[in-house]
Amino acid sequence: MLGVLGGMGPAATVDFMEKVIDCTGADTDQENIPMIVCSASNIPDRTAYILGNGPDPLPDMIVAVRRLEVAGATRIAIPCNTAHYWHAALQAVTSLPILHIVEVVCDVLEREPNAKARGPIGILATHGTLAAGIYSQHLAERGFSSLQPQGDDQHEVMRAIGLVKAGCTAEAIEPLMRQAQKLWDRGCSVVVMACTEIPIALAHRPEVAQGRLLDATDELAKACVAIYKSALGENEPDVESGAPGAPVPTLHGASIYGGTLQA
Amino acid sequence: MLGVLGGMGPAATVDFMEKVIDCTGADTDQENIPMIVCSASNIPDRTAYILGNGPDPLPDMIVAVRRLEVAGATRIAIPCNTAHYWHAALQAVTSLPILHIVEVVCDVLEREPNAKARGPIGILATHGTLAAGIYSQHLAERGFSSLQPQGDDQHEVMRAIGLVKAGCTAEAIEPLMRQAQKLWDRGCSVVVMACTEIPIALAHRPEVAQGRLLDATDELAKACVAIYKSALGENEPDVESGAPGAPVPTLHGASIYGGTLQA
């Protein structure tokens, strides 16, 4: 049973669940992945803490992990990129494997042809994710360079994320696309939507299907489904959650599992 | 913390969560309702059992209730109409109050002006919900008459529900609207979308805003938000979950709580 440490924010959790369901492609209820979801919207703001302006969200995240444990989760996914600042701290307090959204994204990027010759990876994310280097460090360890919006541009990204959190999704599209364009103009071939609020606004943009915008939420969902189907014996090889280099679906939706994932 | 006994089906659970979030109208993550959601998609088919063609889903439903209990839920909602066949059996095994979707819908219908003079209530639902009389009995107890599709018409509704469960939502719209139209033609002023798969297909139809199609999922979500806001002291009077006659928002979206629910 997949445990989802959610509520950061609640709409992003719903978006993640929807992507798990879509990616599973079930014909009946019973073919879906059982999930236990803690939408712990009470967890304090992640970016505020990282920037030194708010309480530590870790204690409430641990409470949510405990809820998932006692409810019977066997693996945990966290549909919030900024929350991965605490990934190691959370993994240290639970025996349940916790997928790492950034590792999943790195795996996907790595499987692209000429991945590292295609220019830096653009990152659209919260101030917290950028300040903590959550993506830039993992990408650098995998041999990728990365670029992020600077100054007022990054403030525009953060305001747009706030708009999505407040339910004003349509208003967030234009500023987010403007900032994605600036990253493409600076030489990025791929821009990662590295905050789970962003694909709520941009998931249906043609640039996603073109592979120019990468949806971290969707890749996390695909990785969860791949693990589940692998455990059911529908896929090979077996997948270890969150392990660097673990096989996950590639950027443009083709499965690495001989096509069975998409079948 | 709102507990959601879900997975019947998984997309309907996501739809319900989305409606809770929309109805809450939060500006930040932390203003949302914390939820613990068990998407127990493994629960056997409800209609099959009621029609004598499948295993009893009650044991797996009880397991899901136990997961919600240990995870810290303080109240339970079930975004599946057919599952309410087991409402009393589930309420008997837990001290957590379980909202009753049919009572919520009856409350909403009752608050309409001249509610009972406006003709019978149309019911679009699964074979199981109709065979068990889940709606017809509750409506009759409240003094409403009801109508449901007959023969091939009901088979068309059931096929459309199956299409939504299989992710073929667009294909379900035409048959469902055809059957709603037949109920309106037979004298119903309101047709209840009394299976949580149906509003996934029809929620954006103009007939919903007109009050001719009533979304049971949305009404359940509104009732949950009203209870939550009441508990926070934002609403009066206090709301008792699932009690017959408990106040819930009215059919056309106006709040009965002096407008604070919509504020």
Question: Which terms would index this structure?
Answer:
homodimer, Rossmann fold, 4-stranded parallel β-sheet, 12 helices, 7 strands, 10% strand, disordered C terminus
Most extensive chain interface and residues per partner = A-B, 40 and 40 residues
The level of helicity of chain A is 40-55%
- Compute the number of helices of chain A: 12
CATH architecture classification name of the largest domain in chain A: 3-Layer(aba) Sandwich
The CATH topology of the largest domain in chain A is Rossmann fold
Describe this structure in words.
The longest helix of chain A has 17 residues, at 169-185. By secondary structure, chain A is an alpha/beta fold. Mean pLDDT of chain A is 90; it is low at 236-263. In chain A, β1 (2-6), α1 (10-24) and β2 (35-39) form a beta-alpha-beta unit. Helix content of chain A is 45%, strand content 10%. In chain A, the strands form 2 sheets. Chain A has a 4-stranded parallel sheet. Chain A has 12 helices and 7 strands. Chains A and B meet through α1, β2 and α3 of A and α1, β2 and α3 of B.
